[in-house]
Records
---
Amino acid sequence: MTHTLAAGDDLPQAQHDPQQPTPVIRAGSPGTLLRLIPHLLGFVPEASLVVIGVGPPRDRIRVTLRYDLPDPPAPDLVTEIAAHALGVLSAQQLTAAVAVGYGPEALVTPVATELREAAWQAAVDLREFLRVADGRYWSYVCANDKCCPPEGVPFDTAAADPAEAAALASVGDGVLASRAAVAARVAPLGGIARESMRQATGRAERHVAQLLAKVRKSARLGAARHMIAAEGLAAVGAIIARYRADGRFTSDDEIARLTVALRDLRVRDDAWARMDPAHSAAHLRLWTDVVRRAQPRYVAPPAALLAFVAWQSGEGALANVALDRALADDPRYSMATLLRQVITAGAPPSLARLPMTPEEVAASYADQDVDEQDPDVDDEH
């Protein structure tokens, strides 16, 4: 039972130095594959189905999908998982895959049966389907008791040799113990820190109210909005530059004003347009800091920005937990719902392109400002 998968250029992973050769990991055995998967996901999977689509050249990994195992394994949920996985593979024109179910036989077998049938109908070669539990694996494909005995095959979670260890270390930014540990990276702060941010957010809201009071007499709505947004745009540019220079926020008031400013789509879009992947590590630090401190009603914009940067960086698990936070704060937040659709469809990080340049964002809103005049002004034309 040997299938060779090459993990290289097309893996979701951290930005790679183009001057250095891209690491290649050849998963020529179930043990190597099982050691690779946590690095692909960024965490050790539990009660999960992982489907890996491969394609030319040399069965290179093209997409990695993970699903929670239904418990109990209701037939409609099992069918939905298999249909989604095969839909993603077919959409990306992949005709070969391997799958691994993590959990007890009662939960994995129904999914394995449905996925294998769906793969056969979709003409996708499901080359292997393993079940993993308690440090052992079983194969739904191999019927040879010599290599796949009924009691399962023990495997080592540690790399087989230094070369494999070095190659695995180059995939992603490390492995966390569970998906819950990934979610903890963006969990809201509690205690004194939360109370301090609550108070700071109240001060930021009052500050905006004072600005609004000053511009309400403006003859043009666009000009008034521009005056309000200008402060937020300056704050976004300054804090992005500081994080890129290895700095950090200076106070809760600074973060609070930023979260309030990001409610303005002009400010959010300007920040989005500045998410150059060359600075992804700095951007991940920035939006993680902001999301953890953002108060209710102000979480969705920075969480959606964090999700975009995480997807851009190949950190799919972080992108999804950031989207969980965004949509919990505002279930209809359009940027978050769009990213959820795209990421769920298995779109690779290479598609995480910037929507516009900051200059194009400014120009688009300048055009809106011209059109959004006071009704008394419009009557003159």
Note: The longest strand covers residues 60-68.
---
Amino acid sequence: MEHINRIDFRDQIARNKRKSFFLIISVFVILILLGYVISYAFDPGYFFVIMIFSIIFSISYILISYYNSDKIAISSVGARYVRREGNYKQYYDLVEGLTLASGLPMPKLYVMNSEQINAFASGRNPNKAVICVTEGALKKLDKKELEGVLAHELGHIGSYDIRYMTLVAVMVGMISIISEIFLRSLWFKGNDSNSKNNSNAIFMAIGVVLAIIAPIVVYFVQLAISRKREFSADATAVKFTRYPPGLIGALKKIKNENQKPEKKINKAVAQLFFANPFTELGSTHPAIDKRIVTLEKM
């Protein structure tokens, strides 16, 4: 009989948190390196102005999205509010039971029209959280499978994943803006061939390469962080339910259904979903098979 190396869900949560932290540090290092090189390629004061504008723009944009993340996400999918006395009693009761077991406050519940099996959570903190599930999830999942999916979403809420990903988005946004401003500024720098420009030619070349490559690199780092958070939420779901087969069953049904890209879902909120609602490359979610294998070891 084949021996299976068991994984403790607590170890899985801690491991993914460490990896996510390391990836965030990587984005920060790229930001500092890009700024350092550009400051030598141009006058440091010039780059200071760029940094100020990029920071203000990035943080303003992200904060507006962050403080309204729940409203934006719900509005973007046209979801409807679920009340205790409504038609979704099992859905409401399962979430209520999980919040009592986990110590989290009760989030607002919503349902969206979609035949896909899916769900997402949003909100800047547990007290402002929302959970939304599809009609397909409520119809196709049994009680234990639905509980596993809902526990996964509560895992995101309890881990402050929206806040975590907002920090990443701020740094990624700053890198993209700085790179764009630097590359566009080269058109206005002219062909001055004085000694200062000659001495900075190497830094200029390095700056151009970094400005082109850095946004691509941090984009994939952002995807990697998102995938690690999904693994962590899966492990947290096991912590809340103590029943991995429920979540495994839901993932297997998602894998086996004839999934087509959801045209009405904005790609900006795709990373919030339990399973990637699109089928193209560059997914914000780990492969379903990998999630199943990991859960089977718990």
Note: Strands lie at 80-82, 108-112, 119-122, 130-134.
---
Amino acid sequence: MNRGKVKWGVLGVASIAVRKVIPGMQVGDWSEIAAIASRDARKAERAAKSLGIPKAYGSYEALLADPEIEAVYNPLPNHLHVPWSIKAAEAGKHVLCEKPLSLSVAEAQTLLPVRERTGVKIGEAFMVKTHPQWLRTRELIRKGVIGELRTIAGAFSYFNRDPQNVRNNPEWGGGALMDIGCYPITTSRFIFGEEPLRVAGLIERDPDFKTDRLTSAMMEFPSGQSVFTCSTQLVPYQRMQFLGTTGRIEMEIPFNAPPDRPTRIFIDDGRDVFGGGIRIETIPICDQYMLQGDAFSRAVREGGEVPVPLEDAIANMAVIEAVFRAGESGRWEKP
């Protein structure tokens, strides 16, 4: 059995790939970025040169035909996630696909028979699931540091009204809920360790783009509640709060944790409202994209489960769909 690093190919030169994921994976112990592809050969060559990637391809097909490539990272726009993940799997490559995995539950489910037939691993790139700050927060809550967890409250926003940006194209799976609302949903499910029973949603759409630009949701879990607001047209901000019967945990940079400085979680024993009972835990510097890539590569090498398997991605998509339905119907909806 090959014990060396897993050789990865990257489909496209998306900003997240070039700025965050590739540099992160390149410093991993288990991952090696061996090739990058773009439909524009010059773009692929430029990216390969600047990132020190040995091979550049002028088409996604050419990369998938490379027998050296064992796994593919797919950061294409949302509507291309499933089609190209299927093509990669059919070519015998393991697939790490950027979030959200698909445009719908039905589309995501088409990957299940493909995975069975090809025997490859397919996972969704929710890098937060492998970040030590999330693992530590979950551990503290499970230990009962805040009593019983009852409520999760979150906010995630940025401002972008660029008509050319894929996040502002509804046909391509744009909008706040798909792009960033998926994070408070997946992390609420992760921390509660449960699936929501029902959800409510408020959605305001951009008059020009028709994407949801301001979306709030309530999720009822068996053991508590989660609420969040996400927006593509608000001040850039992100925060997650976990409120228990006796204490509270606050995550300072829950989602875009930087690779070059520590992150902090605030643990409050609730003795006063002025923060007198807050102690800070500092999580050492780490790159969540490196950790995500290595966790996936290890699963390839050792035969374990990837951090976010298809089943989890489908369950998350079901909640996203339910929030959209609730926003339309004005009623509670079941995922």
Note: The longest helix spans residues 310-329.
---
Amino acid sequence: MRSSKRKKKSHKILQVETSPLPSTLSRMTSIWELANSQLRDITVYEAGKPIEETARELGVDPGAIIKLASNENPLGPSPKAVQAMRAALDNAHLYPDGTGFYLCKAIAARLGLAPENIILGNGSNEVLEFLGHAFLDAERQDEVIASEYAFVVYKLIATSFGARMIEVPSPGYQQDLEAMLETITPRTRLIFIPNPNNPTGTLISQREIDRFILRVPEQVIVVFDEAYFEFLDVPPDTLRFVREGRNVIVLRTFSKIHGLAGLRIGYTLARPDVIDVLHKTRQPFNVNSIAQAGALAALEDEAHLRETKRVIDEGRAYLQEQFAEMKLPFVPGVANFVMVNVGDGCAVFEKLLRRKIIVRPLKGYGLPEWLRISVGSMEGNTRCVAALREILGCAN
């Protein structure tokens, strides 16, 4: 017979002995001990202050903010591009064309090249990363050359790939190609030449470029960053070096004159074998289908390009005339912005911000006295000038 008394179950409590963390982890005080060492020296890129953030801080409607900080197209995108992007949304569930076949074909036809000369990027910045992956080697102690006051992302790319960045002085805020030539060593891999340059707005002539290219050693790749190319009346021809098979790479973008900065789409032009190397570094589907559709339509909208250039030419002339009248030093520019000396760039930036106007202080470029002011609509330009006159005490 079974006993009527149930046996009590005994519960054993497991004792888990804790041991101290390994000595290497116990000493760890920062994630930087795991991160790549070269990242410590990188200053994070600061973009122009967004409209939405400024509106929140000031407690105003975003429509009241004038943004003249990021060299954006004041007319916005081409209406044809907007229409094409809306149509492309119907197929947003499909992966994009990984190679951008139709857009590359259209760009090639326009420039007299072959599609094999072109690679698309998620903005020109991604193509800069392609170049770092493809050509920079920290163990080899590679070097990169760019001008003082050139686009800060060149330095970010060089540093992130463990290369040494050499910045050549810019007398009069002009890029000095002769000094760049003298700086080349056997370790030099890339030379970045933004033309026109951001943020100074200055341009290097065809004659200077021709003389420079003839003297660059074969192991050095010259990268012409031509984000503002379409704003030029008589642009230098750097594509002829690509056609000649030289180690020249040309970067262009749909962010500026085409007004598609929010889509992040740029492209690179180079010899087919160079493009093959860059494709090895590209992530699949790096440029989305909406961006490709918008860029293809924008490329074909000549009327929008002409009107944008007209507005920029008129606005830039107005700003420079006003700065001269106010006796403010400025660098005569050829793109869609002007660099102007206001005495204390950060202080004036903050005062303009309180007046609902966003510009770009240049302290991060080593230019604390300067602002970069993008050319906007004429209403935006005149409001900015009026605010500057008030802040700086300049009489009308």
Note: The chain has a mean pLDDT of 92.
